[in-house]
Amino acid sequence: MTDLTDLSGRAALITGASRGIGFAIAGELLSRGASVTITARKPDELAAAAEKLVADAAGGDASRVLAVPGNAGSEESRAEAVTKTVEAFGSLGILVNNTGINPIYGDLMEADLGAVRKIFDTNVVAALAFVQLAYRAWMRDHGGVVINLASTAGLRSTGAIPVYGASKAALIRLTEELAWQLGPGIRVNAVAPSVVKTKFATALYAEGEEKVSAAYPLKRLGEPEDIAQLVGFLVSDAASWITGETVRIDGGILATGSLGSG
Question: Which residues are the active-site residues?
Answer without folding.
Answer: 164
